Amino acid sequence: MPAGLAGSLAVVSLMRPSDALFLSLPLACAALVVLGRRALVPLAAIVVGLAVGWGQWLVEAELSYGGIAARLREASKANVTGLTVSLVEHARALDGPSLCRFGVKCGDVSPVALAWALAIPAMTVLGLWLARRAHRLGPVLLATITGVTIALPYLFYVGYVAPRFLMPAYALLSLPVAGAVTALRPRGRWWVPVIVLLAVGVLAHLTLQGTYAHRIAAHTLRDRARMGLAVEELRRLGVRPPCVIYGQAGAQMGYLLGCDALAIAQRFPDRLPAGIRQAMERGNRLVMVHTSVPLPPYARAWRQTDLPGRWKARFAPCTRAPTMA
After folding, report:
1. DSSP state, 263?
2. pLDDT at position 322 over 60
3. Helix 2-15 / helix 40-64 crossing angle, nearest 10 deg
4. Are residues 55 and 68 in contact, defined by beta-carbon separation less than 8 angstroms?
């Protein structure tokens, strides 16, 4: 058990150090409350697991970000952190899109999706009550508290939303919810109505989430197809390594073309990034790609080529303009 605890927290801390910290808090408190003086071993496992990811984060902060304080400042800017309440935004994102940021509108609150979300705390409370009656409250309560703890930063600290942020919380809360479903054993004339209600609820859940997944996947596939057409046009125009793709979807297009890449989200910076200038000095061809964001002053005179799918490309004059293949 200690090895599994340390390994699990190590994986989480490598992926998201802050999530691992919030995950470890209820686990450490539970170890102290339940085990008392015998909590040393699980506490040591928690520390070891956190040390793996946080150790890497601290080393990278010193080597690549100018120190811990500088990295925290940059992370705060990038993640729009601070005391906030994003419950309404999370409600709007329940049925998509996958990220409500960088000018992407979350849309209105879907009553159906909201009903699904509100059913989770209701079923969680029912699961806790049934677990208490069955004298199995401890593990279920720990899973519930841990799930809520993981969700709190995304609800009250991070200033933008994405449905995937709450997936670890959903996974943990599924335990009391599943306990509520499996513990219900109606007798007599209530047996059939309750079983039908549970079956309808499970079917509705699968249908709802399947519909959302299909819709979001279809939208993503359309965007990727349009991007693929733009990439094929760039390839036809002779864009080959060594090159740098800079702009919206720069990372994806750069990968498909075999080029270095730097992506932007809402706008281009007012000055050409140092990394781009250095790549150009090494002889890389610079291609700027965009759809709707305003162009920076330094790129307005660059040669422009229209690409399929509403994309546009601009070629820096200090690089050799591509010729028709």
Report:
1. E
2. no
3. 20
4. no
Give me the sign of the Cα torsion angle 110, 112, 117, 121: positive
CA nearest to 150, candidates 134, 171, 133: 171
DSSP string, 171-205: HHHHHHHHHHHHH----GGGHHHHHHHHHHHHHHH
Single-letter residue type at 178: A
pLDDT tens digits, one per residue of 92-111: 999 888 888 766 778 889 99
- Spatial neighbors of 99 by CB under 8 A, at least 6 apart, are 160, 162
**Residue at token pair 């002889």:** 283
What element of type H or E holds 8? helix 2-15
pLDDT tens per residue, range 1-22:
788 999 999 999 999 999 999 9
Find how far residue 120's CA is from the centre of its chain: 21
Using alpha carbons, select from 284, 282, 291 the residue that is nearest to residue 314.
Answer: 291
CB 188 within 8 A of CB 139: no
> What is the band of 320 on the pLDDT scale with cuts at 50, 70, 90?
very low
> For 186-197, how does the pLDDT look when each residue is reduced to its tens digit (9 = 90+)?
777 777 888 888
DSSP 8-class letter at 108: P
DSSP string, 290-325: ESSSPPPGGGTTSEEEE-STT-EEEE-TTSPPP---
